[in-house]
C-alpha cells in the first residue's frame, strides 16, 4: 500500500496529498470506482453536490470497511445554495447522502460572482466548522480578490483553494499569493481532464523512466507540494495513478514540463469570473 504524504492545513488538520476525484462519474459507477480506489490505497475522495454521485460514494465508503478517521471526504456546495440558510441545509444533505456524521472538508464550488453571495456561503461554512459538522473549510475556483473579501468579512481563511492546475495551465501567477497566506492549492483536472495525456514531451520523459504519462504528470505536481485528485473509472488506471511514490524526476524533466505552461490557451474548464450557472 503506498505511503501517501500528509499535507498540513492552516487550521491544524492534515489532508492526504493524493486523492481520488469523481466528477462525471454517474452515481451507479461511483461505488465500484471509489471501492477500487480505496482498495488501491486512496484515502481522500473528492465529490461535490453538483456531481450527483454522493450516494454512490457513500455506498463505497460504507462497503470499504476502512475506519472513518482513516478517510478524508470532501464535498462542495452547489452554486444555487449560497444563501446562508441554504448553505447550512445543503451541507447536511451532503453528509446524509454520503452516510457520514461529518465531512472532512467542504468547499464553495464556484464563487458565482454574478450572484454575489459567496460571502454568505462562507459565513455558513465558518458556522458549520465551529459546530463540528465540517472539519475543514475551503473554496474552489476563487481568485485571490474573492479570498481577500471573505477573509476580511470573517477573519477566517480557507484551508484550500481547489483550482484547475496541470502542465498546460500551471497557475504560476497565483502561487505566491497562496504561499503567503498559507492556503494550499489542490489541483483539479491534474491530468487536464485527459487533455495533457497525449503530450509528446511528457511521453518522452515517461519512456525514459519506464512510467506512464499520467504518472509523470502527477509526480511533477506532487514534487511542488501540490495536492492532486486524479479521476479514472478504470481499475488499472486508478492503481497506476497512486503508484507514483517510488521514482523521481530529475531537474531536466521538471524544466521541460515547466516549459509547457500555456496560460492563454491551456485551461480546459470554465473561468471563475464567468461561471454563473446555478446548479
Ligand atoms: N472544483 C472544480 O470545479 C472541479 C472541476 C473539475 C474537476 N474537479 C475534481 O478534480 C477531479 C479530477 O479532474 P478531472 O476529472 O477533470 O480530470 P483528470 O483527473 O485530470 O483526468 C481524467 C481523465 O483522464 C483519464 N485518465 C485518468 N488516469 C489515466 C491513466 N492512468 N491513463 C490514461 N488515462 C487516464 C480519465 O479517463 P478514464 O476515467 O476513462 O480512465 C479521464 O478521461 C474531478 O474528478 C473532480 O473531483 C473539480
What ligands are attached or bound here?
NADP nicotinamide-adenine-dinucleotide phosphate
Based on CA inertia axes, which overall geometry fits?
A: globular
| Structural Rg | 18 Å
Whole-number mean pLDDT: 97
The helix fraction, in percent, is 25-40%
Q: Topology as H/E string? A: EEEHEHEHEHEHEHEHHEHH
- N- and C-termini, Cα separation: 38 Å
Number of strands: 10
Helical stretch count?
10
Biggest sheet strand order reads 3-4-5-6-7-8-9-10
Low-pLDDT stretches: none
Structural class: alpha/beta
Strand content: 15-25%
Largest sheet: 8 strands, parallel
Descriptive notes:
The protein has 279 residues and is α/β, with parallel strands linked by helices. Helices cover 39% and strands 15% of the residues. The protein has helices at 27-40, 54-64, 84-98, 118-130, 144-154, 172-180, 200-209, 213-223, 235-242, 251-258; strands spanning 6-8, 14-16, 20-21, 44-46, 72-77, 103-108, 134-140, 160-164, 184-188, 227-228. The strands form two sheets. An eight-stranded parallel sheet has the order 3-4-5-6-7-8-9-10. Helix 1 crosses helix 9. The model has no long low-confidence stretch (mean pLDDT 97). The structure holds NADP nicotinamide-adenine-dinucleotide phosphate. NADP nicotinamide-adenine-dinucleotide phosphate binds at residues 21-23, 46, 109, 140-141, 162, 188-194, 197, 212, 214, 229-234, 237, 240-241, 269.
Topology at a glance:
Layout: E1 6-8, E2 14-16, E3 20-21, H1 27-40, E4 44-46, H2 54-64, E5 72-77, H3 84-98, E6 103-108, H4 118-130, E7 134-140, H5 144-154, E8 160-164, H6 172-180, E9 184-188, H7 200-209, H8 213-223, E10 227-228, H9 235-242, H10 251-258
Parallel strand pairs: 3-4, 4-5, 5-6, 6-7, 7-8, 8-9, 9-10
Antiparallel strand pairs: 1-2
Helix pairs in contact: 1-2, 1-9, 3-4, 4-5, 7-8
NADP nicotinamide-adenine-dinucleotide phosphate binds at residues 21-23, 46, 109, 140-141, 162, 188-194, 197, 212, 214, 229-234, 237, 240-241, 269.
